[in-house]
Amino acid sequence: MEATFTVAQEREAGQPVNRKTVLLYIGVGLFVLFLALSSFGAFSTTHSVKGTEVAAFATARYGPVLVVGPSDHRLNQVPLYEFSGDVTGHVGCGTTSSKGLELGAKVIALLSCSGPQSDFLNDVTSDDWPALTSKGPPLAGPGVNPKLLGRIFRRGIGYQVTYGGHPLYLFDQSSKPFHPQGVGYVETVSPLPPWHGYWYLANAASGAPASGVAAIAIATLPNHERVMGVVMEQNVASLLVTLYQSSGSGRPPCGAVCRGNWVPVYSSTMPHVRGSSARLFGLRRAANGALAVTYRGSLLYMNAREKVSLVAGSVDRSGTSGNANGAPGPGGTMHVVKASP
Predict the structure, then answer these.
(1) What is the C-alpha separation between 300 and 294, in angstroms, rounded?
(2) Is the pLDDT of residue 166 over 50?
(3) CA separation (Å) from 297 to 31, 226, 270, 326?
(4) Which pLDDT band holds residue 240 (cuts at 50, 70, 90)?
(5) Is 175 helix (H, G, I), strand (E, B) or coil?
(6) What's phi and psi for 32, nearest 5 deg?
(7) Cα 136 to Cα 139, 146, 217, 240, distances in angstroms
(8) 3-class DSSP assignment, residue 182
(9) For 12-25, what is each residue's pLDDT tens digit?
(10) Are residues 177 and 113 in the same domain?
(11) How far is Cα 113 from Cα 95, in angstroms, rounded to an integer?
């Protein structure tokens, strides 16, 4: 406006128009316009970066769980997992390579726990659980709480999507019908992949582990003692994992000793119990909102460093080693749960 007004003034006075003056005022005007548009983000690339969509998928067995949304046709409805070893800001599923049994294999391979999402898309098997990543802020599909969505930056991976503070991972593409292989997967110590924990689907409502209905049965220790175990890896080949209870008051805090080492047994409803009295089992709401299984009123746990035995190169699935018996845990010393008569 100032440039136009000045030119009109010069014409009224009968003076020739100064071309340099016109160009100067036009330049100033364009600069002011550029600053105004920039303040509104007109030239920003931040908002143009597309984020990964996370959606909710309703299942009869696990309830509403997280999957990749339809905006990414390459990963649409691929199940998303969380790891028990990712706790209190510590990411337990790292990128350092270790030796462990591959899924369905009888051979030991060198692999890492996690890696970039591109490895999943390109069928690279050197990392066990590739991370779900998002270049922009992740998007909440129907049934997903946007307040629980976030992302963290990880070296060699990028921005990994989180839900309720839990990093999200990819594992298998088979989801039609919905039969995710990674549910309840056990990866504790060698000869298993030594990531020190257990894998779950993520509940879409809270971000807590979505385990389905727990199954309890009698397991056998290497010394032939019969103890209570929980059935894990149900969608692959069932493995009975030894259960523990505290000899103390049952109060959960135990500091760094318990960080990720003791994993509660979760169940969406009362567990199915085989070979024992069902009336001795119950449920208690955990701090993360999930239902945790109790036995004689005390919480049941699995150990994140539970050992397995090999028979003819394969995992002995009748029971784990019970190697954490007598170790410190939530509320006191932890002991295996002996099978009821």
Answers:
(1) 5
(2) yes
(3) 72, 21, 14, 20
(4) very high
(5) coil
(6) -65, -40
(7) 9, 14, 45, 41
(8) coil
(9) 344 454 555 545 55
(10) yes
(11) 6
- DSSP H/E element including 81: strand 81-83
Tell whether 205 and 222 lie within a shared domain.
no
The answer to whether 281 touches 254, Cβ cutoff 8 Å, is no
- pLDDT, mean of residues 250-263: 72
Q: Which amino acid is at 128?
A: D
| Length, in residues, of the chain | 341
Tally: H helices and E strands in the chain: 3, 26
Q: In what order do the strands lie in the sheet with 332-336?
A: 262-264, 301-303, 244-246, 332-336, 328-329
Q: Which of 192, 210, 228 is the last residue of a domain?
A: 210
More confident residue, 27 or 98: 98
Domain span at residue 10 reads: 2-44
HEC string of 96-148 equals CEEEEECCCCCCEEEEECCCCHHHHHCCCCCECCCECECCEEEEECCCCCHHH
